Amino acid sequence: MNASYRHFGAGLVLLSLLAGVSCQEEYLPIEAAIEIPEAPKETLCSVKDHGAVGDGDTYDTAAIQAAIDDCAKHPEGGVVIFEENGRYHSAQIVVKNGVRLRLPKTTTLLAGIKREDYPKIYDDWYFILFSECTNCGIEGEGRVDGQGSLWVYGGTAEQKAVTNWDDASCTMPKQCRPHLIGVKASSLVTIEGMELYDAVHWTVHIEHSETVAVNNCNIWGDPLIPNSAGIVIDGSKRVYLGENTISTADNAITVRTPQASHGMELLLVDGGILQSRSSAIQIGHESRAMFSSLAFQNISIVQSHRGIAVALRDEGSMEGLQFTNITVETFFYERAWLGGAEPIHITALPRSVNTEVGTISDVRFQNVTCTAEAGIVVAGSVDATIEGLVLENVGIELVQQTDYAGGFLDYRPGVRGVVDDVQTSAIFIEFANHISLNTVEVVWGKPARPEWSQALEITPRTVHALHVTELFVHDESAHPHGREDQGGSARATMMAWVRRIENNLRSSNKAFLGLEANAASGVLGRRAASSASVIIIVLVAVVFMVFVVSGIVGHFDMRAKRHARTAEEAKFEKVAQA
């Protein structure tokens, strides 16, 4: 059985501690060194034995589903296996309890694009669906191809036009297309090592589920297809995203609570490379329930329109958000895509004039390096201030990289919309309380954009309890040279960024180890505890988690599952040139 829960379990224990225990502001040097016993022999169910052809033209839906049903009959479930070099064309596939799909590196699943390939109701439009499924998943190094290119019928150089089905069950006419993979009301689900390619809508949708891991996947989307997001997580608990590479048009990672009955709790995103024409990381936008204990670490964001977005627009609240060891590169795209080249964008604004907005509190950015065409934006509102924001060891270098017009604040979605004709400050703050800037560096690069203004801008009478320690400002924009040496700065080439990212990312076997437990008086601090006490608690919890998951997982070396970097760089080159 799939063994990615070894580090996953340890990380969830540490995430649990984030919600309730704190210690010194140091990384916890904890190694989850306990080995999980080998799983019993797997039951294998071959799609070929059930009549699959795998020629890329014949629909193999019945054969694949029959193999799944066969495996599901066994008490311990089983693994559905596909032949190497096969191209399996299929309508919707429904995975059942205890069943995992395993695709070799040379194997492709092709998603059907006909209306009859999917169920009657929009909510069930997924090519691969895990619904009320326990201990199930998909693994290997094969490809799941959404065939998004077959949906395109025109458009512009900035955004493609795609077909949408005319269906009464779909209330959003511009998004009436199927998702690639859905995890709905399920638990103990893993998506491991896969290449998820060319989705026409969301690539992975995790909804109302618990204990879900997406590890070491490459998600590649057409950079011009709207709403083709990477991973969308709705109201779930205990989700781990580890060392994924995501390049999409819409948000690379989206975390939402569209229903008041389902909050978002305990999310760890550890490692990976993210690229988006919208936001690389989007938290909120739809925010009707609580968000708590969300941690993002060791991530590289490249060539995105907006880096990290925290957007509260509804009655839900957010607390305990942590961003550590992250590099961000942002620059302008066309305004059809949300964002304005901001590396960090935190807003608490009403969606409409009648909307009640919750609160954003206890948010920490630590060891974050930004290169951008616009600055950091922190904007609450009269009835929804932002409380307890820490920027510690944060650097931002502003460098002109495109010819798109700037000089605006993008508050979308919401009643404020886009505000034009404004100056761009490196850090802009309004309607916020208890803000701490500790060791923050601003570099004005060259050449300068005409709208650039001051390093720190505070809207009068809306910001209270601002604490600034060591704010450094360097202005290089007046130096003669201009664009010719700009290649050695932020823009460079995608290949150079990939190499830089590769050097900076820590090895995958340290996933979850060293999550920061902040001081009781700091962000995420709930009660004081000594470092020794925390270590004892973690080790006991790790042992407990190991016994819980030992019956369903086996040992797995994450490094052995990683794709060759050369292939990955080639794909980045393709995306960068698109």
UniProtKB/TrEMBL annotation:
GO molecular function terms noted in the UniProt entry: polygalacturonase activity
InterPro entries: GH28_Enzymes (IPR051801), Glyco_hydro_28 (IPR000743), Pectin_lyas_fold (IPR012334), Pectin_lyase_fold/virulence (IPR011050), RHGA/B-epi-like_pectate_lyase (IPR024535)
Keyword list, A-Z: Glycosidase, Hydrolase, Membrane, Signal, Transmembrane, Transmembrane helix
Keyword hit for Transcription: no
Any GO BP annotation: carbohydrate metabolic process
Domain Rhamnogalacturonase A/B/Epimerase-like pectate lyase, residue spans: 46-88
Position of the signal peptide: 1-23
PANTHER family per UniProt: PECTIN LYASE-RELATED, PLASMIN AND FIBRONECTIN-BINDING PROTEIN A
Protein name: Rhamnogalacturonase A/B/Epimerase-like pectate lyase domain-containing protein
Organism: Coccomyxa viridis
